């Protein structure tokens, strides 16, 4: 059964109409555009590809005259024009202190997430999805589907909207089958949603602002052409062959044009429209889209070795991130926050109390020590429960994500 049959189950409210179609209207000679060169760049092949994949429901391809195409692209290549501004958009999005978590699936309907992973919080098709804890000393702050250097770098709006898109697709059980493909689909949907919601709107704005002679629905075509040409030129930066970007145009070009039109008509791009597009186009489109947009999206977080556990949530931000074992105390492992030896978790028998304590030392060491949380659970290794706030601590209690097996009694 086609997944589009289930769209109504995932989406209830009326939205911008997403138009489908893969082939251009027959009376447009797309091949006549193939030799166009402007500003020292060969635009013709990209223009031809977008023309060939133009959906009939959007009418005739609006830039079918090579003279008109030359005039429009001349504006793009002017100094400070759309091409230069797109470069700046990419530059502004680099090194933003944010990365997307790795994803996998837990085994069976009632299984637990693997070590180092926690539930992604999705329901439906993706309800077995698990994502890594924030186990990187450079990105310790939990931020929805991602990890950030600090709370200021947590783009919560985009993270929330990406979750909406993933959950919307997850509502359709027939979208994709097989554990490997389901796991890949979650990551691809999140990455694609980031690009369409965060990178595409400013790209549309700079193209519309720089080309002051656009008319009718030329903006959708020009955004697709300019974006794909830029992606082809920068493919090597993300280790993708330019051929992969050309292949993506046929699968993905119409989506760019349709969402450009939506932004023009409504002022923005609705996450529900992205859900509908993904469901209509199917999972094959996702791989092409992710390759095509990689240069504008956040990276996936790298895996860190030797981490024992991570703390995802705590009232004190100093505790967030990866923890490593540093020796033992009275037969119990002792742990330190990676990169911060002043913040520790250890077993203590001080003052006649046997308990686990989490504390942070001041500049003078023990004299400035602040005890944040404790747990009286008598376990060989750090406990996952029983934690309570001490006077120097803050709610909520720490949330642990084990990365290595804990020592049992």
Structure description:
The structure is a single chain. The protein has 409 residues and is α+β, with helices and mostly antiparallel strands. The chain has three domains: 14-95 and 190-292, no CATH class; 98-186, no CATH class; 309-402, no CATH class. 35% of the residues lie in helices and 19% in strands. It is built from ten helices and 16 strands. It has helices at residues 7-10, 44-52, 66-76, 82-93, 156-170, 179-210, 218-233, 242-266, 271-281, 284-293; strands at 37-38, 41-42, 98-100, 103-105, 117-119, 129-132, 141-143, 146-148, 309-313, 321-329, 332-337, 340-348, 355-362, 365-375, 387-389, 399-402. An eight-stranded antiparallel beta sheet has the order 15-14-13-12-11-10-9-16, with no helix packed on it. Strands 3-8-7 form a three-stranded antiparallel beta sheet, with no helix packed on it. A three-stranded antiparallel beta sheet has the order 4-6-5, covered by helices on one side. β11 (332-337) and β12 (340-348) form a beta hairpin. The chain is elongated.
Instruction: Indicate the overall shape.
Output: elongated
**Roughly what fraction of the amino acids lie in strands?**
15-25%
Low-confidence stretches: 1-25
Helix content: 25-40%
Q: What is the string of helix and strand elements?
A: HEEHHHEEEEEEHHHHHHEEEEEEEE
Task: Please outline the major beta sheet.
Answer: 8 strands, antiparallel
> If you average the pLDDT, what whole number results?
86
Structural class: alpha+beta
Spatial extent as radius of gyration: 26 Å
Number of domains: 3
Number of strands: 16
- N-end to C-end Cα span: 52 Å
- Per DSSP, the total helix count is 10
Question: What strand order characterises the main sheet?
Answer: 15-14-13-12-11-10-9-16
């Amino acid at each position: 059964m086609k997944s589009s049959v289930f769209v109504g189950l995932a989406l209830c409210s009326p939205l911008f109409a997403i138009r489908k179609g893969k082939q251009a209207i027959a009376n447009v000679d797309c091949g006549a555009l193939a030799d166009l060169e402007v500003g020292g760049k060969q635009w013709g092949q990209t223009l031809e590809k977008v023309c060939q994949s133009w959906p009939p429901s959007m009418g005739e391809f609006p830039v079918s005259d090579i003279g008109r195409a030359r005039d429009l692209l001349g504006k793009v290549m002017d100094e400070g024009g759309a091409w230069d501004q797109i470069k700046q958009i990419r530059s502004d999005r680099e090194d933003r202190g944010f990365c997307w978590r790795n994803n996998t699936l837990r085994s069976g309907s009632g299984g637990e997430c693997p070590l180092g992973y926690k539930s992604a919080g999705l329901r439906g098709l993706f309800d077995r999805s698990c994502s890594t804890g924030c186990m990187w000393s450079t990105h310790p702050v939990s931020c929805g589907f991602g990890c950030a250097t600090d709370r200021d770098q947590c783009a919560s709006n985009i993270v929330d909207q990406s979750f909406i898109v993933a959950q919307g697709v997850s509502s359709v059980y027939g979208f994709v089958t097989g554990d490997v493909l389901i796991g890949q689909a979650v990551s691809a949907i999140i990455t694609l949603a980031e690009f369409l919601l965060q990178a595409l709107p400013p790209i549309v704005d700079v193209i519309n602002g720089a080309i002051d002679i656009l008319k009718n629905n030329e903006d959708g075509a020009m955004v697709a052409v300019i974006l794909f040409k830029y992606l082809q030129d920068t493919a090597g930066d993300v280790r993708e062959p330019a051929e992969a970007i050309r292949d993506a145009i046929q699968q993905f070009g119409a989506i760019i044009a349709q969402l450009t039109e939506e932004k023009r008509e409504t002022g923005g791009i609705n996450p529900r429209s992205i859900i509908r597009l993904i469901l209509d186009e199917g999972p094959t489109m996702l791989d092409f889209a992710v390759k095509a947009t990689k240069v504008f999206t956040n990276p996936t977080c790298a895996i860190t070795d030797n981490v024992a556990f991570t703390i995802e949530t705590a009232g004190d931000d100093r505790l967030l991130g990866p923890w490593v074992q540093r020796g033992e105390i009275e037969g119990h492992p002792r742990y330190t926050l990676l990169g911060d030896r002043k913040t520790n978790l250890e077993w203590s028998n001080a003052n006649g109390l046997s308990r686990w304590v989490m504390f942070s030392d001041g500049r003078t060491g023990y004299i400035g020590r602040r005890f944040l949380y404790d747990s009286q659970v008598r376990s060989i290794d750090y406990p996952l429960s029983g934690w309570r706030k001490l006077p120097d601590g803050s709610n909520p209690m720490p949330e642990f994500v084990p990365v290595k097996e804990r020592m049992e009694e």
